[in-house]
């Protein structure tokens, strides 16, 4: 019984680690518009694999307001997006 609990816990931790790693997938896009006052950016992006979302143009929240200062319209970027409180949010940029 103890072995079964150990194996179950191990499996749960493995799946949690895989889910966490997949949430770090960078997607490519082009900045279309920046709304620094609202902490939002419009990105023309490729498929967002982690979210099972096709390529499109959409508005994202910025996790950190200072991210807006690092962006310029027409710039090609790579970014990580996640759902934060139900809103699609840019978590990382490069």
What is the gyration radius calculated from CA atoms? 17 Å
Anisotropy-based shape: globular
Uncertain spans: 4-22
Q: Name the structural class.
A: alpha+beta
Write structural notes for this entry:
There is one protein chain. The chain is an alpha+beta fold and 94 residues long. The protein is built from 1 helix and 5 strands; from the N terminus they run H-E-E-E-E-E. The chain has one helix at residues 2-22, and strands at residues 27-35, 40-45, 56-62, 76-84, 87-93. It has a 5-stranded mixed barrel with strand order 1-2-3-5-4. The radius of gyration is 17 Å and the shape is globular. A hairpin with a 4-residue loop joins strand 1 (27-35) and strand 2 (40-45). The chain has one domain: Beta Barrel (OB fold (Dihydrolipoamide Acetyltransferase, E2P)), CATH 2.40.50. The longest helix is centred in the N-terminal third of the chain and has 21 residues, at 2-22.
Could you provide a short overview of the structure?
The protein contains 1 helix and 5 strands. The protein is α+β, with helices and mostly antiparallel strands and 94 residues long.
Structure keywords:
single chain, five-stranded mixed beta barrel, 1 helix, alpha+beta, OB fold (Dihydrolipoamide Acetyltransferase, E2P), 94 residues
């Amino acid at each position: 019984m103890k072995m079964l609990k150990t194996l179950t816990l191990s499996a749960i931790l493995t799946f949690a680690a895989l889910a966490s790693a997949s949430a770090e997938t960078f997607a490519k896009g082009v900045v279309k518009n920046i709304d620094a006052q609202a902490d939002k950016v419009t990105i023309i992006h490729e498929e967002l694999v982690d979210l099972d979302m096709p390529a499109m143009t959409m508005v994202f929240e910025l996790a950190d307001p200072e991210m807006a200062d690092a962006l310029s319209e027409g710039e090609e970027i790579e970014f990580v997006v996640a759902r934060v409180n139900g809103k699609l949010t840019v978590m990382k940029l490069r």
